[in-house]
């Protein structure tokens, strides 16, 4: 048995995940065991995806078919004789780096804290090859280890609001490269001109876990700007269907999200309320996973370029057709030249417009879902804007359902089922009592990445941890003790404890709760959560068979 496996345990992660957790330390040997186990379990029955992190492995499973107990037993059995991946495995990628100056504004401070000159710090940082221990935080962001002891520097006390793409940073024993211009708290010592994330490419992410990175000092470089989002979509793919006259606040093309990319740091994206999207597609005769328009208030104004059948589901945003109130949750014949618009929000946050035939946009990594922060998917990787034209596909069709159907949309208060999280034991009895009994209100600072909750603090006994895998529905608790529910655009890894995970069937309720809505967590079992998913799948089958 390896040192990494001797203390391993298998922890629950909601109804869609299991976590194999190794010793709580940053170690190349332990990380090698994580990657080795990842390869062995990649094709195990019921496993959809594996996400290796610094010292744990997240198994994303099919909740309706996976045998959790068998998977846990298989993982622990494999660990008995598991050898870590060898350091020589993986590719060697060289990254030229301009150190110091505007490219590395923190180099002098890092050198001073280390008792080195800047020249010595550069030589020490570039002397060794670093292994990609995991990808997370942002698409393609590599966590590289291990930094030489003298160079290890803490994160900034106040993170920068913008770190340029290509910036090379240090955080304690790790070094990394920012793939996008994002906020960040690592100490910046240089910048590479090599692009490690490019959403325009078929394979947008350069590095993989297990690869090695060699930093090569250079004196100057031209740093490219990678555009996120395409120009106006004036020529739609497929048959013309809709023209965007006014884009509204946040209108995108979404489907049920992508799978297989979380190990690369790329979130699933997809509909905030997947059930509402599925019903919008059902009502117009599409497959349940077809691409549709997702919007929030203020909503868009869409003009028909051809006769088309539509359905509006999800939040009640006062939809109207040519100024006359439109009946939601039912198929509507929209004639050429007619205009669909939205008014004051009455209930819920996210509405869906299903279009017969689906929206014709190219799939990226197996999905049409838009991930705006990464400029990926949907209509050119961005929000829709005025002047865009949307085409409809010619996929499998059936007659639209004629009966009206609808889903629960929370108004003032809602209860959601929550399963214990992998760090449930990190919270004392007082915090756990508040977590399960208090009413939390939805914060206005919520978005597609995470829903922030206001209420009594539920601090953990221990605040920070080595980053591990995340899934939508995970309830993270940062140092201040205010929970955050991870949503479809949320990060794939995180370093805060998780006392609970929202049942997948109920995550849409959190998504649809408007700011100020009170949310209560109700303890649930795996069996109850899976039964709820199975009941919804059966409902869909019955509706599609009518």
Automatic annotation (TrEMBL):
<dbReference type="InterPro" id="IPR052708">
    <property type="entry name" value="PxpC"/>
</dbReference>
<feature type="domain" description="Carboxyltransferase">
    <location>
        <begin position="8"/>
        <end position="207"/>
    </location>
</feature>
<feature type="transmembrane region" description="Helical">
    <location>
        <begin position="349"/>
        <end position="372"/>
    </location>
</feature>
<dbReference type="InterPro" id="IPR029000">
    <property type="entry name" value="Cyclophilin-like_dom_sf"/>
</dbReference>
<keyword id="KW-1133">Transmembrane helix</keyword>
<keyword id="KW-0812">Transmembrane</keyword>
<keyword id="KW-0547">Nucleotide-binding</keyword>
<keyword id="KW-0378">Hydrolase</keyword>
<dbReference type="InterPro" id="IPR003833">
    <property type="entry name" value="CT_C_D"/>
</dbReference>
<dbReference type="Pfam" id="PF02682">
    <property type="entry name" value="CT_C_D"/>
</dbReference>
<dbReference type="GO" id="GO:0005524">
    <property type="term" value="F:ATP binding"/>
</dbReference>
<dbReference type="GO" id="GO:0017168">
    <property type="term" value="F:5-oxoprolinase (ATP-hydrolyzing) activity"/>
</dbReference>
<keyword id="KW-0067">ATP-binding</keyword>
<dbReference type="InterPro" id="IPR010016">
    <property type="entry name" value="PxpB"/>
</dbReference>
<feature type="domain" description="Carboxyltransferase">
    <location>
        <begin position="263"/>
        <end position="539"/>
    </location>
</feature>
<protein>
    <submittedName>
        <fullName>5-oxoprolinase subunit PxpB</fullName>
        <ecNumber>3.5.2.9</ecNumber>
    </submittedName>
</protein>
<dbReference type="InterPro" id="IPR003778">
    <property type="entry name" value="CT_A_B"/>
</dbReference>
<dbReference type="Pfam" id="PF02626">
    <property type="entry name" value="CT_A_B"/>
</dbReference>
<keyword id="KW-0472">Membrane</keyword>
């Amino acid at each position: 048995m390896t040192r990494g496996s001797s203390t391993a345990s298998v922890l629950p992660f909601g109804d869609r995940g299991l976590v194999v957790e190794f010793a709580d330390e940053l170690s190349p040997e332990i990380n090698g065991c994580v990657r080795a186990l990842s390869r062995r379990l990649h094709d195990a029955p019921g496993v959809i995806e594996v996400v290796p992190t610094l010292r744990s492995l997240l198994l994303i499973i099919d909740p309706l078919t996976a045998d959790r107990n068998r998977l846990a037993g298989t993982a622990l059995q494999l660990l008995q004789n598991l050898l870590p991946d060898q350091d020589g495995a993986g590719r060697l990628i060289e990254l030229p780096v301009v150190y110091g100056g505007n490219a590395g504004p923190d180099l002098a401070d890092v050198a001073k804290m280390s008792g080195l000159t800047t020249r010595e710090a550069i030589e020490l940082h570039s002397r060794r090859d670093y292994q990609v221990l995991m990808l997370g935080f942002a698409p393609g962001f590599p966590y590289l280890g291990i930094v030489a002891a003298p160079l290890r520097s803490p994160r900034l006390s106040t993170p920068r609001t913008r770190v340029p793409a290509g910036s090379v940073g240090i955080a304690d024993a790790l070094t990394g490269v920012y793939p996008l211009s994002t906020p960040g708290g690592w100490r910046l010592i240089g910048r590479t001109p090599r692009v490690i994330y490019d959403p325009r490419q078929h394979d947008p992410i350069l590095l993989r876990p297990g690869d090695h990175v060699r930093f090569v000092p250079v004196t100057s470089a031209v740093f490219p700007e990678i555009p996120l989002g395409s120009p106006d979509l004036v020529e739609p793919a497929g048959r013309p269907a809709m023209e965007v006259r006014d884009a509204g606040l946040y209108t995108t093309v979404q489907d049920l999200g992508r799978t297989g990319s979380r190990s690369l740091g790329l979130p699933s994206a997809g509909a905030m309320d997947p059930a509402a999207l599925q019903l919008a597609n059902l009502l117009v005769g599409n497959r349940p996973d077809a691409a549709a328009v997702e919007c929030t208030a203020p909503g868009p104004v869409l003009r028909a370029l051809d006769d088309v059948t539509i359905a509006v589901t999800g939040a009640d945003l006062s939809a109207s057709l040519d100024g006359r109130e439109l009946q939601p949750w039912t198929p509507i014949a929209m004639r050429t030249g007619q205009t669909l618009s939205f008014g004051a929000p009455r209930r819920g946050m996210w509405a869906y417009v299903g279009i017969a035939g689906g929206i014709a946009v190219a799939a990226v990594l197996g999905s049409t879902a838009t991930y705006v922060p990464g400029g990926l998917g949907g209509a050119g990787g961005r929000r829709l804007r005025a002047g865009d034209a949307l085409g409809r596909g010619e996929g499998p069709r059936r007659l639209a359902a004629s009966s009206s159907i609808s889903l629960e949309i929370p108004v003032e208060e809602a209860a959601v089922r929550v399963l214990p999280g992998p760090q449930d034991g990190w919270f004392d009895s007082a915090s756990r009592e508040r977590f399960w009994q208090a009413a939390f209100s939805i914060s206005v600072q919520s978005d597609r990445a995470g829903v922030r909750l206001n209420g009594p603090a539920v601090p953990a006994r221990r605040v920070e941890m080595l980053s591990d895998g995340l899934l939508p529905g995970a309830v993270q608790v940062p140092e201040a003790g205010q929970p955050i529910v991870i949503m479809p655009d949320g990060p794939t890894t995180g370093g805060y404890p998780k006392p609970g995970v929202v049942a997948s069937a109920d995550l849409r309720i959190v998504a649809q709760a408007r700011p100020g809505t009170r949310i209560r967590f109700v303890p649930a079992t795996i069996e109850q959560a899976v039964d709820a998913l199975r009941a919804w799948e059966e409902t869909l089958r019955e509706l599609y068979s009518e």
